[in-house]
Design brief:
The complex is a heterodimer of chains A (about 230) and B (about 280). Chain A is built from 11 helices and no strands. Chain A is mainly α. The longest helix of chain A has about 35 residues. Classes of the chains: A mainly alpha (about 230), B alpha/beta (about 280).
């Protein structure tokens, strides 16, 4: 119990003494997981729109696969992405392994099924005729998509939050494809693991606390956007 | 609409690729976890970057168990290794995958256990003798179980003792790193094998005492991956090896831990180590 208080005290010390390394790590976590969530949203919303509006044959199969994807273990994703990015792997020529970009890719793979599966459900709750009516009223496909996304805003933002949560909280994949390199690919989760293995439990607790605060700040912002009363 | 999405997706992919601007000639250093966990790796890499700013952007130290490091070297996924696995090192060089092995530093393996010493390990002279007593009294022993250098040394010691502990109820594998395994052993009041450096770092948090030191040193070596056989960054790897064995590199090793723990965690192999407490045994 004492350790938790020490950790929180250490967290405040790190935050307010302007510890450059901690700021760098926190910023990288935010940037990487934000980018991964962005990619997951682009891919997820396109697949979800297709599945929800076009209702292609085999939709149930696709959905069941996506739903399983929500339970995709990060270490498995990390292993597969790492093998792909190895020097001798199929994408080795890109020299992406042990870079922040590699973590973005791995986290995007983790977040995409989450965002997609939840977005399909979100779009399915819309009235099935709504899209046809909007199109009939003369909206372009892009305008229609924008309108429908706005209509399903509440559950879609929830999907984005779930995706971001999956991305920023994972550690196995970041460790494997990022390598936890000082000043380059150390995220809040991987440096927490490192501090534990170094026996610096207060520092680990402090990083964990900073991660929780950061996640809360992001989720609070998204929740405010989500719950904002619709402008006329 | 599909075309628009496709454009967006490829844009995102481009953004990801551009984030990896520093590809090409990176120097991937495979390091045993014990060197990272003590914090020595960060100091060495930071000083190397200061001395060689031209290499600074490309250095990528990756920590893994020694068994995994050998595997990465065989695939040419790393340029240079800092490793403590004598048997596998010799094989790596014999097979032509590794070259230019240099001794970097050493410390010692030690048998640690609970303060009340239920297996009476303290009064033994050799490691094998102590392990026999643990087996005879069936006291809990925590093994790393991860093919790390420490784990392989532990198995060699059990062989010396003529005991096969695997599968016994008192023999448990933590499957974790060195620090974590110590915490587990301390929590369970168990015996375990540890390198002296990590033990010093963790000592304050542990209810464990050191009972027997290993006769053989825990030798850390540098091995470069053979550039004739694998597509590795030869120039940078050589520069890093030169730095580690230079007086500057060896001095960092000699002084590491002195201030924080009151004793050095590793004994450097070469010159430039005035403060070294023990002579380096030749192997």
């Amino acid at each position: 119990m004492e350790l938790i208080w020490d950790g929180i005290r250490e967290a405040f010390r790190l935050i307010f003494t302007g510890n450059a390394e901690v700021y760098e790590i926190a910023f990288l976590s935010l940037a990487v997981s934000g980018a991964a969530t962005g990619i997951a949203l682009i891919i997820g919303l396109s697949i979800a729109s297709f599945l929800a509006f076009r209702a292609p044959p085999g939709r149930t199969l696709a959905l069941s696969l996506l739903n399983s994807g929500m339970a995709l273990p990060p270490v498995v994703v990390g292993l597969v992405v790492a093998v792909m990015l190895w020097r001798t792997g199929p994408l080795g020529q890109l020299h992406l392994l042990y870079t922040p970009a590699a973590i973005v890719i791995a986290q995007a793979v983790i977040a995409t099924p989450v965002v997609t599966a939840l977005s399909v459900v979100a779009l399915q709750t819309l009235h099935p005729k709504l899209r046809l009516q909007v199109l009939a009223l003369g909206a372009s496909r892009w305008q229609a998509a924008w309108l429908l996304f706005r209509e399903a805003r509440l559950p879609l933002i929830a999907a984005a939050m779930a995706g971001f949560g999956a991305a920023i909280s994972e550690v196995g994949a970041s460790m494997m494809v990022g390598g936890n390199i000082k000043g380059s690919t150390r995220t809040l989760t991987t440096s927490t693991v490192l501090e534990v293995s170094r026996g610096n439990l207060e520092a680990a607790m402090a990083l964990a606390f900073i991660l929780l605060v950061l996640v809360y700040a992001v989720m609070l912002t998204l929740t405010i956007v989500q719950q904002r009363r619709r402008a006329s | 609409m599909a075309v628009g999405w496709l454009a967006l997706v490829s844009l995102a992919a481009l953004a990801v690729l551009s984030m990896a601007s520093c590809g090409g000639d990176d120097l991937v250093i495979g390091v045993s976890t014990s060197v990272r966990d003590t914090g020595l790796l960060d100091e060495l890499v930071d000083e190397f970057k200061r001395q060689r700013p031209d290499q600074a952007a490309t250095v990528k130290p990756v920590a893994a168990g020694s068994g995994q490091l050998i595997e990465l070297a065989l695939r040419g996924e790393v340029d240079i290794l800092i490793i403590h696995l004598p048997g596998a090192e010799a094989k790596l060089i014999a097979d032509g995958d590794g070259i230019d092995r240099r001794e970097l530093m050493h410390n010692f393996f030690a048998l640690v256990g609970p303060p009340d010493d239920p297996a009476r390990a303290q009064s033994t002279l050799t490691m094998a003798e102590a392990l026999k007593r643990i087996a005879a009294t069936e006291k809990t022993f925590i093994s790393r179980g991860d093919n790390s250098g420490t784990h392989l040394r532990e198995m060699a010691l059990w062989r010396q003792a003529g005991i096969d502990p695997v599968g016994e109820s008192w023999y448990q594998e933590s499957g974790a790193g060195q620090g974590q395994s110590l915490l587990v052993a301390s929590d369970k009041g168990a015996y375990t094998l540890v390198d002296s450096g990590t033990f010093v770092v963790f000592q304050e948090r542990l209810e464990l005492e050191l009972y027997v030191s290993d006769e053989e040193p825990n030798q850390y070596s540098i091995i470069r991956v053979n550039p004739d056989k694998h597509g590795v960054n030869e120039a940078a790897a050589l520069a890093f090896a030169e730095f580690l064995t230079s007086p500057a590199g060896q001095r960092i090793i000699a002084g590491f831990g002195l201030e924080k723990y009151g004793e050095p965690l590793f004994v450097p192999a070469g010159p430039g180590s005035d403060s070294e407490p023990a002579a380096t045994p030749e192997r």
